[in-house]
Automatic annotation (TrEMBL):
<dbReference type="Pfam" id="PF00072">
    <property type="entry name" value="Response_reg"/>
</dbReference>
<dbReference type="InterPro" id="IPR011006">
    <property type="entry name" value="CheY-like_superfamily"/>
</dbReference>
<dbReference type="InterPro" id="IPR001789">
    <property type="entry name" value="Sig_transdc_resp-reg_receiver"/>
</dbReference>
<dbReference type="GO" id="GO:0000160">
    <property type="term" value="P:phosphorelay signal transduction system"/>
</dbReference>
<keyword id="KW-0597">Phosphoprotein</keyword>
<feature type="modified residue" description="4-aspartylphosphate">
    <location>
        <position position="55"/>
    </location>
</feature>
<dbReference type="InterPro" id="IPR052048">
    <property type="entry name" value="ST_Response_Regulator"/>
</dbReference>
<feature type="domain" description="Response regulatory">
    <location>
        <begin position="2"/>
        <end position="129"/>
    </location>
</feature>
<protein>
    <submittedName>
        <fullName>Chemotaxis protein CheY</fullName>
    </submittedName>
</protein>
Amino acid sequence: MKTLIVEDDFISRKIMKELLAPLGETDIAIDGAEAIQAFRIAHEERRPYDLICMDIMMPNMDGHEALAQIREYEKERGIAAATEAKVIMTTALDDPKNVVEAFYRGGATSYLVKPITRQKLMQEIRSHGLL
């Protein structure tokens, strides 16, 4: 499994990397703009990400905007919904506005509230058929 972790906080990034590294190749982006760049490069190299774990609140470009651009990129290239990257939005905010934004407007696959435990993350990954 190839994973992109998009997280501006060093400690959160480190924890996510430790949890996901045993499952395969893991790349890191520190904001939404860097995530879009990594996502496009992966597609150009014909090695797209299977999973993207993306924080919502980040400087420069937040997770909502990055997700919208990722989904637009997939749509422009005719990537079917069944084969698009699975995107788990992560945030410290457990409020309805962010849930609606992530799922209904952004096309997120799922949503996890921090702190993220190994058990919660693995359960979410399994539920999407990635393990």
